Amino acid sequence: MSNARTTAADIASAANPRVKAAVRLRDRRERDRTGRTIVDGGRETLRALDGGARVVEAYVCEPLITSIEARTAVARLRGAGTKVVTMSAAVFEKVAFGERSDGVVAIVEVPATDIDLLRLPSDPLLLVVEAVEKPGNLGAIVRTADGAGVDAVIAASPITDVFNPNAIRASLGTVFTVPIAMAPTTDVLAWLRRVPVRIVVARVDAEALYTDVDLRGPVGIVVGNEAAGLSATWSAPEVTAVRLPMLGEADSLNVSAAAAILLYEARRQRGSPDRRRDRERSG
Q1: pLDDT score of 282
Q2: Which of 177, 202, 268, 277 is the most buried (most CB within 10 A)?
Q3: CA-based angle 171:173:176, to the nearest 5?
Q4: Distance in angstroms (rounded) separating the CA atoms of residues 65 and 279
C-alpha cells in the first residue's frame, strides 16, 4: 500500500452510521449487546487475526498507515475478504482512541469466554484476576501472562471486561492469543477445584513469602482488586496465601506488578524459561 494514494475516502462525515456504531463500542453495554468490540492498531488487529477472532469490518485512514504492522494488517484483512472502509483523517480521529494510532481500526466479534471451554495441559499454570477495575491494569496483566507462558487467564467477577478496547490496547492484542475466560468468583473457585490445581493467592497479610511456596505442577495464581484485594471466597482451607515483601512505606504493589512477579517466579521454579519455543520445537 502506498501513502501516495489520493482516492477519496469512503467515509468523510462523522455523522455516518458506521462511525457512530463504532464509537458506541467504547461502552460496555454496547459491547455486551452486540457481542463486538473495537480494536485500535495494526499490531493489535494482527493478533486478533492470529487468535482466530472474526473481524466484521475494518476502517483505515490511508495517510496514517506507515508502520509495517498496519500495512500487513490491511493486506491480510483485504486478502481474507474482510470489508475494509477508508476514512478521512478527521473522521478516523473520531473512531480511533489510542494515542499512537497507525491508521487501522477493526470491529471484532468478542471470542467466547466460557470457562468450561478452556483446554489445559496436564500441568497448567493459570492466572486468576478478581474484580480488577482498570482496563490498563487488566491489559498489562494479560500481556505479562502471555510473556510468562500462562496457559489461561481467568477474570473472576470482572468489573471491566477483558475485551474493553483499552484493555486490548494495553495487552498489545494478546487478549486474542492467550486463552481467556470470565465467570463469577464462586464458579471460578469451583472450576479450579475440579481441574484440579493448587490455588495460591496474593495477600498483603500472608505469612509465607512468595519464594517459599512451590509453584510447580498444576497451579492457579490469584490476584485481586486494586483497592480491596481479594474477596473472602479465597479464604478456603485449601488455598495457600503468599505475600511479596514490602520494604518501604507502601503496603502493596500495583496488581499488574504483583502478577508479573508471581508469574515469573512460577516460571523460574518450573524450569522452562522459554515454553513457547519449547512448544515450537516439539511441534
Answers
A1: 39
A2: 202
A3: 110
A4: 34
- Alpha-carbon span 52 to 46, nearest angstrom: 10
pLDDT of 279 reads 47
How far apart are alpha carbons 140 and 136 in whole angstroms?
Answer: 6
As separate numbers, helices (DSSP H) first and strands (DSSP E) second, the chain gives: 10, 11
CA atoms of 276 and 65, how far apart (whole Å) = 31
* Contact yes or no for 140/11 (Cβ under 8 A): no
Residues in CB range of 18: below 8 A, 6 or more apart: 11, 57, 59, 85
Residue 195, SS3 per DSSP? coil
Across 186-217, b (16+ Cβ under 10 Å) vs e yields: ebbbebbeeeebbbbbbbeebeeebeebebee
Distance between alpha carbon 98 and the CA centroid of its chain, in Å?
16
* DSSP designation for 173: T
Residue (of 65, 15, 16, 59) closest to 39 by Cα position = 59
- 34 CA to centre of own chain: 19
| Contact by Cβ (8 Å): 46, 79 | no
Q: What is the pTM of this model?
A: 0.92
> How far lies 201's CA from each of 119, 204, 257, in Å?
22, 10, 14
- Cα–Cα–Cα angle for 87, 88, 91, rounded to 5 degrees: 80
Residue 115 pLDDT more than 50?
Answer: yes
Matching residue, cell 455486551: 32
Query: In angstroms, how far is the first alpha carbon of the chain from the final one?
Result: 35
pLDDT tens, 76-106? Answer: 999 999 999 999 999 999 999 867 789 999 9
